[in-house]
Structures
1.
Amino acid sequence: MSFTDRLGGLGFGGDYNPEQWPDEVRAEDVRLMTEAGVNLVTVGVFGWARVEPAPDKYDFSYFDAVMDELAAAGVTVDLATMTASPPPWLATEHPEILPVTQSGTVLAPGGRQHYCPSSPVYRDRAAKLVEALATHYQGHPALGFWHVGNEYGCHVAECFCEESARDFRRWLRRRYGDVEALNAAWCTDFWSQRYTSFDQILPPRLAPTYANPAQQLDFKSFSNEALRACFEIEAAILRRVTPDVPVLTNFLAHHKPVDLHSWADRMDIVGLDSYPDPFCPRSHVAAGLAYDLARGAHGGDPWYLVEQAPSAVNWRRRNGVKEPGLMRLWSWQAIAHGADAVLFFQWRQSRGGAEKFHSAMVPHAGPDTRVHREVAALGAELAAVPELAGTRVANDVAVLFDWNSWWALELDSRPSDGLKAVDRALDHYGPLFDLGVGVDVLPPGADLTPYRLVVVPNLYLLTDEHAHGLAGYVSAGGHLLVSFFTSVVDGNDRVHPGGCPGPLREALGLRVEEFRPAAEGEVFLLGDGTADLWREDVRVEGADVLLAFPDGTPAVTRNRFGTGTARYVTTRPDEKIMRAVLAEALAEAGAEPVLRGLPDGVQAAARTGGGAEFLLLLNHTDEARTVDLPHPLHHLLAPGRPEVEQVTLHPRDVAVLARHSRSEVS
Ligand code: GLA
């Protein structure tokens, strides 16, 4: 049975933590869920202390009742493996599981996620719990998905304890084989860091000054893999005991420690948590980047929005509410970017504990509230378009993003601490979003042949292999746009021979002589606008200069290479210039927006599948907007699904359109 068949359409629901409430409340919960169209809930994320109150003494009776009631109501469960927050007895009996910070502080229990990812004791206790859980719930009619852990690395992404040090050394031995290879990779001849044995190597604990950058970079990779190993231990058990139940975990959006690309193919579905800030007018653009990345990480498959807030969160300095319509708009936005499920944290607002001021689908004030009414209305709306589930998003522009490069770029001792990988990606993704162009966000090793234009906002770290892949893409007729400080170092943070752009030099038709990072707040005149952050002294070697600074230094170049073109941008132009630069590259590549002539602030996205084509229109503004359609389409959210040639979107409004109404498709 496919995921879509199991849910019968799009998934809708949230984290359900009824343990916080008297048992009687569950009857109301289930009734309200049914009324609100909830078909999927995540259960048991914080259940460990309850199901294993003492070592190896399992008591599933509480969750049995919850699972049975949900099954009876037809609600599918994404059952958590309960390992995200160890119970107090475990930390008391085995304090060695507690994580240690870079400066040697032991993190205490009393919050959550207080475990060292490399701890054999933690891993063993987690594995035993998962074995018991999977064996107990195999075949349960409510069990639809396994939710492994919870937001890996959200609070503890790296641990610097002795156990982690041993695990890091094992990882380094596997990677380098012998210590001389490590010395060469880490350039340890500098600063007298030459090792004569792996046993001398430590995690990059707090040191008098910059720790070796290659050591820091390897530690980030190692820490990512230590967390991933925790996931894999659990997933292997689940796949053995319940081979038909899909396995997922929930990644955080824009989460630096966890390399989603290196985990995604181990998931049946990519799950993502997304908490855009309602106070930030462009946060939906950053969310879009995260969604396109989640989809791109799993071959374009539909992904699940596993958590979002119904209204405010409680963990920002100031926690803005989602004004009327915004929760609906941002939920549909996830679907526009390929999500097949829209879930929230959490179902009923906590009475006590750390998250009582985090909004929920059923607020403290009860179901007769704006938030709950909007939740229930969304549930009804999603249930009305089941045919969207399983359809796909296809684009002909790719933006490249890479965790290794992110880690390396933001280490200490760089030319400027102003370069942040996600911001740099947004400097390119934002104008593409505004131009109405659909984008796939992909890792540098992805197959680029389907794309007309590939944009590289900043890949400071680019391996020879990936650089040659990009050059090959261009020479075979692809169009590439690369921005500054790309292809500077190899996988060990060693500068490419000859400097930047290393193995991309021929394809770009230039070389960089000197980086000129801007002073804080410094702005340069460029064309009829400005630029900031960065400049480079570039020597062209065949590339044409499309735009130059007043002193003649190139700002944008274009090189013909093979049958394709490669542009290079040496600075951060203002938004208007960047949009024009990208528009020109798109035009040359023949890449089209989803819909021509869209009014400002309206996003259009297409999903196709099952013989149908869907067009989603999202008004991200606080004013009404009218969109003329190129041909009549059925308005699937309007009563009777009428055919329309024009759509007026109210502020924060959404339209879902299709060429055929459902009856004509089926
Ligand atoms: C994360 C966690 C949830 C909850 C939310 C609150 O996403 O997974 O348990 O704490 O944050 O926003």
2.
Amino acid sequence: MKIGFIGLGIMGKPMSKNLLKAGHTVVVCDVNRGAVEEVVAAGAQSVATPRDIAAQVELVITMLPNSPEVRQVVLGANGIWEGAQAGLIVADMSSIAPLASREVAAKLAEKGVEMLDAPVSGGQPKAIDGTLSVMVGGKQAVFDRCLPVFKAMAASVVRVGDIGAGNVAKLANQVVVALNIAAVSEALVLAAKAGVEPELVFQAIRGGLAGSTVMEAKAPLMLDRKFNPGFRINLHIKDLTNALETGHQFGAPLPLTAAVMEIMQALKIDDMGDCDHGALVRYFEKQAKIELQRAPAR
Ligand code: NAD
């Protein structure tokens, strides 16, 4: 298939390269020239604007930071909407507000253009090896047409409902991850403060009900003091902002999400916005005046 790809960042670059590897023709565009050159070197074609892409492909994928960038690239000057013909499909794989997905889709529908919201989880390593999880909102028939394309980038692709449902699922994912990291942080700092080796507590509880994928991924990094991203606190703040707004719009209070959001805001003020979200532990460490470390060798 001839596919457009807009947004060649940490995620979009490897995702577009996996489409090339799967044999698709890929036409790219990004405001970052260096990123464009790298994907062109891997076999893509490039054009100047999203409008140029929309005029020549069957499917345009966007992988942009947040709702304002998606609105700009789809509906703004020289955007996808200007170049689109009826029958084009737009699959937005960015993590954005569900209501923004619905608004953009409604505008595209005026021209007979279909849209899916298809955010991902898995981060850069899974983007590179093509094993992302994709959660998709949109019509079943449009999903069926795009499924082989998603499968070139993902190990799991699930349609969760109509347009906007993909981003609702992604927000649910981000709430669970944020609260889980906070719980692991709070618990390990409690152990350390009470004079018990946090590493041994991790070993003792990881196989029981308290164990989780988050605990497996983040506890070792906390103990090793590795806070390079990964997934930046600033990006998680963006997702929790969208979660809280969505909760308010639909009447679902999110008190625990609000608490973790404030912890992330405190870390941002302490210049840790670009650290991995595992650095949440540093908030609890600061309050308890202690730092986690590995158990000494025996
Ligand atoms: P990124 O900031 O690395 O990349 C975004 C890209 O969009 C950049 O290359 C930027 O130049 C480009 N861009 C911005 N505005 C543009 C415009 N107007 N026209 C063309 N290009 C434009 O972000 P990322 O980490 O690749 O994340 C992309 C999305 O995926 C975000 O919504 C993020 O929340 C989500 N996500 C990220 C991760 C992760 O681990 N990084 C994991 C899952 C989901």
